[in-house]
Amino acid sequence: MSRTLVQPVGQKRLTNVAVVRLKKHGNRFEIACYKNKVLSWRSGVERDLDEVLQSHTVYTNVGKGVLAKSKDLLAAFGMDDQTKICLEILEKGELQVAGKERESQLSNQFRDIATIVMLKTINPETQRPYTISMIERLMHEIHFAVDPHSNSKKQALDVIRELQKHFPIKRSPMRLRLTLPQQNFDSLAEKLTEWKTVTVSKDESGSQVSIVCEMDPGLFRDCDAFVRNLQGRSEILAISVHGEGDIHADHYEGHEEVSSSESKKPTEDVVQLSEKIQKQTLSADDTQGQVKQNKCSTCDAIVGDAKQYREHFKSDWHKHNLKRKTRQLPPLSADECRADEEMSDSKSDLNEYSF
Does the pLDDT at position 287 exceed 70? Predict the structure, then answer.
């Protein structure tokens, strides 16, 4: 009896795809998309549906190529138009991300959050922003973990609040121009003093007073509402103000000389922070160095990292010293071991020749 090879027909298997999944009416529906195209479609960058969907077909399992039944589509979506259903799944479904892609997304989001923190913060003593690498180190030090389902800006603000508990860092001030009637200026001045704002300039023209000041961004809503109540208006000149140029006091007009001990005070916190990070880096390097140093007690020698340590056990040098150890003889170095083996080979050759 002859046997025939039976192969499944009507089954379309798709691999190396991005799967978008939607659970509805007790069933699971999936569509196959091109990688890195789903997010572009949702953000409005990609508008061609054919560039996003690999197939205008609804599956229950893309990996196995199992198609969704028409009765299930009618029960869940009220129609059996595959393209329209694919659009709904594309908009509302959950993107299934592979491990490496998820790791890449988290790494990029971590970098985005660190960039936002850098742009929104300054050193309170120097009035300058920290570098992106230092911000990332501090985020690692407070054990910050990225939430992929949360907004990067919201997470950045949470990071800033957490960093302020441990390190010298603060929100960079925003620069505003406040304009209001002359008779209401005294009320505003009292409020600005209470908010500890820094006045940059003041201009009086007729019955209006215009003042440029820098304040904490968290006070902007209260300030804007207060100025409106005083029949004035507020204008944002800069979201984030950082120190520029040389920030030493003796480069400004009308300065007063300060002692060298006083001039060093503003940078003490920064120096301590830098030293702390440098010590951690050095300690980490020392730890790695200690891990790499492996010593073989049989050969009485340091043989390197774990991989080299394993390879050493397979070497003729180690085997030769192991034989010497069983005879209670001291270990030989690698060169001595090779010389000893060559001497043994020469003796064996002479013995064979004599016979």
Answer: no
